[in-house]
Amino acid sequence: MSDKARVLRFLIPLAAFVLIGIVFAVGVKHSPEVGDIPSPLVGKSAPAWNLPVLDATGRTFGSQDLRGRWYVVNVWGSWCFACSDEHKTLLDIARHASVPIIGVDWLDDDAQAADYLTKLGNPYATVATDHDGHFAIDWGVYKAPETFLVNPAGVVVFKQIGEMTPQAWQKEFAARLPPQLAGRTS
Amino acid sequence: MLPELGHFALILAMLLAFLQALFGIAGPALNRERWVAATVPAVAGQFVMVATAVGCLIVSFVNFDFSVRYVAENSNSALPLFYRIAALWGAHEGSLLLWIIILALWTVAVTVGTSRLPKHFSARVLGVLGFISFGFLLFTLLTSNPFLRLEPPPPDGVDLNPLLQDPGLTFHPPVLYTGYVGLAVAFAFACAAMLEGRTDPVWARWTRPWAIAAWAFLTWGITAGSWWSYYTLGWGGYWAWDPVENASFMPWLVGTALIHSLAVTDKRGLFKSWTLLLSLVGFSLSLIGTFLVRSGVTVSVHSFAADPTRGMAILIFLCVAIGCALALYAWRAPTLRSSGGFELTARESFLLFNNILLVIAAATVFAGTIAPLIAGALGQRPLSVGAPYFRPTFLLPILPLLALLSIGIHANWKRGRVADSRRALLVTAALACAFALAVVLGAYSGQHFLAVVGLVLGAWIILSSAVDPIDRLRRRLTLSRGVLGMTLAHVGLGVAVIALSVVEPYTVERDIALGDGQSAHVGAYDFRLVGTRDIDGPNYSATRAEVVVSRNGRTITTLFPEKREYWVRQQEGTKAGIKNEYGTDLFVALGDDLGAGRWSMRAQVRPLITFLWLGPVLMALGGFCAVTDRRYRLARAAADAPQPIGPGVKERTA
Q: What CATH superfamily classification does A37-182 receive?
């Protein structure tokens, strides 16, 4: 074997690793597949809930107010990095779709949450506050953000774990909603 | 105050790790002796800071400080003290902290262990370890800080994941991580040798005890994990080819290849560039495993909810660390030349086959593990690869490996005189065949081809590895710890192979529905449900069933499987009822209440499963035994004498 070929042979591991690295990088970019994790709640009735609204009026809001309607529940917090990443997508969805998106502000401070929404915009029809985490426990939330789709019968039909993406919205949420509610997202 | 102190200590640790890397790598390169000398204090300082951070987090857990987010998310005021401490590594952030402190502990051990090696070499080793530690500390501080506060603090925490509330959790992750992270030491030795331009194989002798120790911990950790999943997950599985299990198995396979090729490089000066590459690949697979687990790119029972910035951050660090190491390899390895040949039947060739087959096995596991990722990258539908892929592809390289082992241990270095041991080989092989037939025809009904093959191979390994030590003892020759360790490990492998060959085909499993007083046949046993009642644990309530197991009308044992409901997370957990009888596990897990007093249950009879854990435990013990061999201490003492080093020194071969 010539010396040059010998030297090249030792580059093979590096070349192989570069290929693997590319696969990983693409994998990280496409990780909404984590939405495929099944949730025990999907296909079952959503637990009843009633929470204070984030507007300092002391008003509460809950499953009673949404009976017979399709709605989306997005669990978030001003402390949650991935939530701020998905925020733009939520704003976009809120602009185009007419299904109400209920924000559940989890383990958060009201002032900080209000500040967050003032800065980034508010995609939510209503923001309910889950100060002590009871809602999150009832709904089996493990880490924010998580997004649920609830049908008029009060049954959770889909749960997205992790960031909402336009693709996930189209594929999993819009496809399940009646067309007049799903709207169109860019 | 304490969380802030811990946070600050972590920042200081990161700065010290950076200095350790800078002094250790740049010092010898620029010939600055004071920098070289400064690496050791940097190691000590970094360790103290990391220990402080860990201590602060433990105190926060112990004192129920729910203002710390990590504590609030992973413990609860009803959680017993034992689990509050173990909750430290119950989720992502704390696991990283555990990773970091274990690396710091290894680094301290390496500092002590290499104090008699050439100064520049040990400084480089510490420098490389400092670089790895710096990367992980930076990652933790930027994306996964465990000391973040919650404002206002919640009244109570959301509790530790019930699956983790088991004694197995308390030692499985730390031991596994010790093995995982320990491979970093071999990686650092290889990098140091390449940075220095060493062409002599002495570094292989220095690396051997470290690689073997890491391998032993990894063996023990994987076994503990398998045992833990068998006992707590409630479905009686011990290995599922889950991405996270594979992530620990791949470094193990490559680590096994490494400790064998290190032996060749140490004793014969051969395979030098290959051994270097294995040292790099072993730890690279640990890093890739960490990435697969932490980034959420693969869906697994162990996944933590994914934060995309984390995945990207680990990936960047991974690419820098592995990329630099492999580039260094591409640059330095061509200067390594091995001279001196060996015959086809010499021990070297058997170890070469061992390496090739183990690396093929690791590659098949790797391919299966990242197949879903590749499919995703190509825009295909997500595809999942499970046991139907892994089993046959894994057996393909492993069966010949097991067969060659029994012959290979009788081969001599350089000139194989396998023929000299022909009698021993034939006798042990005949005994192994007789044993296999006796087991298959006598003890268990039903013949399975693979069971026979496995039993023959396993028994042959045990008998064949015992020949030489027994012969030595009979001739009153001393048995070095190295040989003893090797024998123990090989016997352990044989035991595990035999157990697996029996467990796989002869397990009887039935899903049964029983009312009070009813019974069902499972294999040769009868399982009878006596009744169920409700009980309360410290942080859960449970239904406990009483199941009497009998054989031929004779009562053997009573099992108490539980189905638990953990209050805080309202999550269900199962605690299987298991009784071991002569190595056979009688197993019952309680399923659902079917109404009218009837319960669904899963009953299993698993023969010889105890030996499936015993085998790897023997392997790990063998590893620990070999580490204490005298020659490694002598190797260190010999290194005190100055010796010519540097590129271009033509190496001698024995």
A: Glutaredoxin (3.40.30.10)
